[in-house]
């Protein structure tokens, strides 16, 4: 056999081998589905697309992202994830609280610090976040990938609020989370739980109709345009979590599991950069768009009056969650103390 013939044969074998490998990779590649509960450009959306970016740049897999409403409400996308229709979901503990009662811990007012650097360090280092919560989510058939903050909670209201008495007999729209309702009841308001998709429409309707009782909206990350008065009470940070269907995740190769964990870590770091200064930027845009917007940041003395009502919410949390919730709360506080003492 001539050298030229040998080279041609080797080239043919190499081409066949390359084609076989490519075919195998194509067969092993998957199109995964990921749903979240926010709109285009919101924090969860940015996180989802950073997660997608890492997955697709580092594997043959593809990832479809579904925003709020495309596959239903928050409850719908969670059910679809648990049933395996979706591989990934991003959902706030505000909604997950009905499935995992301990997740409501993030709505105990004044438990979290207000300093962003401290908050981020807490999410990185906390034993409660990184060890205890994954076990709780696993019991619900979910692989917790990452918990992360979206921004400080704020109240939007049609009149200035500086003390709990200002909330008396006022209606407030909140997520369908029992402890969140307890928080605003403790503050003096009358909460009405609504699915996320109905909150905005309900507020617009009530404001257009000019009802006598003011309507409030709790949100983070810059969606403040519903009413002209923004009140920062310093009572908490809005938290969310990305997770996977556990059966799906457990059935993956170690390589793909590492890929997903690395993607979650990558998206976390990207989102921390994204939210740094986001609220201030959003606030400036709103103020530029309207000279009727007022911003109230409660001082320490004013906050003290609200803080005095927080213990009853903590007691309610323990009542709702029992011994496991009490242990989690103790660990939460220990973790926070360690971070704050550094």
Oligomer: single chain
What proportion of the residues form beta strands (DSSP E)? 15-25%
Helix count, DSSP H or I runs of 4 or more residues: 13
DSSP E strands, number = 11
Task: Categorize the overall geometry.
Answer: globular
User: Kindly, what is the distance between the CA atoms of the first and last residues, rounded to a whole number of angstroms?
Assistant: 75 Å
Quickly give the structural class: alpha/beta
Q: Characterize the biggest β-sheet.
A: 6 strands, mixed
| Main sheet strand line-up | 7-6-8-5-9-11
Question: Could you give the order of the helices and strands?
Answer: HEHEHEHHHEEEHEHEEEHHHEHH
Can you describe this structure?
- The protein is of the alpha/beta class and 342 residues long.
- The chain is 52% helix and 17% strand.
- It contains 13 helices and eleven strands.
- It has helices at residues 3-28, 43-57, 74-83, 93-96, 116-125, 127-139, 178-186, 196-209, 246-250, 254-275, 278-289, 300-307, 310-340, and strands spanning 31-35, 62-66, 88-91, 142-152, 154-157, 171-174, 190-193, 215-219, 229-232, 237-245, 294-297.
- The strands form two sheets. It has a six-stranded mixed β-sheet with strand order 7-6-8-5-9-11, with helices on both faces. A five-stranded mixed β-sheet has the order 2-1-3-10-4, sandwiched between helices.
- Helix 7 crosses helix 13.
- The longest helix has 31 residues, at 310-340.
- It is globular and about 60 Å long.
- Mean pLDDT is 82; it is low at 2-27 and 204-226.
